Amino acid sequence: LEAFARELSLGMNVERNMMLLSNNLNKLDGLEEIGSGEARRHCRPEEGMRFCELLKEDLASLFDLPETGEDVSEALSIYTQIILNCRCFLLAMCHLANGKFLESAALLDMLQARVDEVELLVTLPEPLGRMDPLFKSIKEALPKRMMQWRCRGIAQLCAMEARVVEEREKDDEDIGNVSSKPLEESVGLSTFPPGYRDIPCKPLLFDLAFPCIIQPDIEDFLAQGKPSGNQKSLLGRVAGGLGNRLGSLWGRK
């Protein structure tokens, strides 16, 4: 009884998460691109990846139930592979929304190679049998969704490469225009050393007649200015008389 209740609880969890995952995938059908803000508000692929992780855990718990036969194990393995394919598709949508077109194209190419390998040939008994229609509907709709978004991703990748080539050609033209100009004009630098130019300056005077001037001989003037011997004695007597008189005056005081 306990095992049956646990199986029923896990089956209900799988059904709930499968319906949420299906709604998330159905929202992608009404979009033509997923990178805009409006598209991100309408559908978020990362939420679908979260549902895939929950489904993987629930299916792993069903594997661990006692008395799980080979048919049930085989069906659960197929369900797990379908969930892994859905997760791969949603991861590619996340890359596409973030502008990573190469990563998205690589994941979708890998998914295209393995999406047809899964076939639902076994039907689970009740109460797990109620999950079969949900997994079948997702499996049948996945190839069409994958091809649509793969074509859109490749188209966006081609448009991006065309823009890159156009920008590269424009840069080459700019480089060619710059290379035709002098280096100083293209880089915005001045030449060194700078060229000659006129500047205001005071006039320079050169006295060319100065070396031709003959300097006068001042020996004659010095000889004329020297006092004679009589003049020297007279001046000595006058200076001595004045000194005696001043000395007597101070001595008397």
Strand and helix layout:
Elements (H helix, E strand, L loop, with lengths): L1 H27 L8 H6 L2 H19 L6 H28 L3 H14 L17 H48 L3 H5 L31 H7 L3 H24 L1
Description:
- Helices cover 70% and strands 0% of the residues.
- The protein is an all-alpha fold and 253 residues long.
Descriptive labels:
253 residues, mainly alpha, 70% helix, 0% strand, rod-shaped
Radius of gyration, taken over Cα atoms and rounded to an integer in Å? 55 Å
Fraction of residues in helix: over 70%
Provide a count of the helices: 9
- End-to-end Cα distance, whole Å, is 154 Å
The succession of helices and strands, N to C, reads HHHHHHHHH
Counting helices, strands and paired strands, the structural category is mainly alpha
- Return residue spans where pLDDT drops below 50 for at least 5 consecutive residues: none
Biggest sheet overview: none
Shape: rod-shaped
- Taken as a percent bin, the fraction of beta residues is under 5%
Counted beta strands: 0
Mean pLDDT, nearest integer? Answer: 76
